[in-house]
Input
Amino acid sequence: MSLLTLDRLDVRHGLLKAVREVSCDIADGEILALVGANGAGKSTLLRAIAGAHLPAAGRIVFDGVDVTTMRAHNRVALGIALVPEGRRLFTTMTVEENLAVACASGRPGRWSIDTVMTLFPMLRARRKARAGNLSGGERQAVAIGRALVTNPRLILLDEVSLGLAPLVVEGLYRSLHSLFEGGATLVLVEQDLNRVLGVASRVVCMLEGRIVLDGRAGELTRDQIIEAYFGLRRGSGRDDKVQGQP
Amino acid sequence: MNIINLLTQGVLLGGYYALVACGLSLMFGVMRIINLAHGDFAVLGAFLAWTVSDSADISPFLALVAVLPIMAVFGWLVQRGMLERSLRAGMLVPLLSTFGLAIVIENLLFEAYGADTRSLAPMIGDLSFGSWAITDQFNIGYLAALIFALAVLLLGGLSLFLKHTPLGRAIRATAEDADTAELVGINSRAVYGIAAGISVATVALAGTLLAMRATFDPYSGPMQLIFAFESVVIGGIGSLWGTLLGGIILGMAQSIGAQFDPRWFLLTGHLVFLAILAARLLAGQVGARGGLRTSLGIDA
Output
């Protein structure tokens, strides 16, 4: 059955419609790669699912509960966790405190500060360090750990690799592998197609706020995805916008 | 010996200023609200303590057992009912609404209690005037010492609370980034309400102590706000231990000024405040991230 249902979701930034009539079902255990160019509405969609941004229209149903207007902290208690773009750590607090603060308000489960430290061994030595003094990779590990300790059923990862060296990204993805194998439900937003295609079971491509491609990862060719990514394919319900492009 | 006496009195007075200021500092640190009704909350607390101890015929210290929880709930209500709404309308609206609240409190107190100047000093026996005579020229008043000790205990306790308890961590996380705090499961509105409750309870304590060591009337609030504000700015905004230091610097400046001429008591304090503010501005510290967000004494 589907864990998350989006029903004709509209999300706006003031006058700008960042997400337009998006409908989508995400099944339990699915690893969904959400791809698209900058400004396609991926981050906004994740923030709307997590409750950081209230939608203008449409519905969000999580595990049978309508969460459309529910506040973000209550969605965490239901099992939705977002790793936000740009990490957004509490920089004046230590690594351990960053994790503890999330621990206190999440659900019970297998993830704790200790299991996160096992997943990201480099954090163990840095547990008393201020989050503001960490390297980019360490920060991203803390941000992921902070989401994990709430023991979510749905994890939304927004641009894990942004601003990180390829080697560091490689390491993070290796650590995340146990997550991918372990039957977690994930939505991954990435710019790097190759990276996500390696792990995702399903690919959804957004263009100008709409879903223009949705299929099983193994059944889509790279060219199909790239066409959808840049909007090269006509007639997918968004031709009204093409004229406006330079 | 005289100079030691002078400095000691200044330090002890600074303890009182730190006590008034710590709630102001907390509220600014967590919610970015400059509460212009802060001094009037102190006076409201003093009137409440006066009423409770007068009608029940008990010591004002015992009255605090009732006053502090009442004021904490009042602070929570002000936050949830008024400040939370005004925060959504931008930075200026909370400032204006607390200014309005200050006027309302002053006039309601005037309406209820009249213009008489009161004091709790007669209700606390020789605590109000007794002192330890160290030498001929060096005395330490019981009450002044008690207030200073309470200030250190309160600031220290608050600091430990923020650092080591789950609720304290949630307050610090919300202070730094309320949106992200929500995303890790913290109810930021509830945290704001609790922080406001703590802030108002501490200032009610300060107001009651003010009423013991001096006199008060319905319009005493704004002066206390100024002392609190000066202590906070001198000590660095948002830092609890800095607030104690700021209070001490202000208290010493006033004591030293008064030594030359009693009329200089307030003036010297204001001048030192302005000098430190100007020095900070020149050094580019005010408005710098570190200065504003030295999050609640964690750096102190």
Notes: The two ends of chain A are 42 Å apart (CA to CA). Chain A has one domain: 2-244. Chain A touches chain B at residues 50-52, 71-73, 76-77, 81-82, 84, 88, 90-93, 97, 100-102, 104-106, 146-147, 150 (CB under 8 Å).
